[in-house]
Amino acid sequence: MTGTLIGLGIAFLISLWVFNDAKSRGSSAPVLWAIGVFLLLIIFLPAYLLMRPSKKDVTLVKNAPQLCPHCGKYYEPPVTYCPHCGNKV
Ligand SMILES: [Zn+2]
Fold it and tell me: How far is the CA of 89 from the centre of ligand 1 (A)?
């Protein structure tokens, strides 16, 4: 009985982690992944780890500095106007 409870607790913690991880990576169905991991940990956890979107790529795309076409300086998106020359980018 205690073993079952510990197993359930671990499965719950892992599914919680999967939910937060999937959400932070912009996954379309973090709840489904969390439920799948909770019910079928052995199958869904490896599947999730294989299929989850790469966090690195998402961050790179979002925060990569862009080159202003007007003044040639780098700015940090998302911005509408260049912080250096004030032109729309
Ligand atoms: Zn500029």
Answer: 8
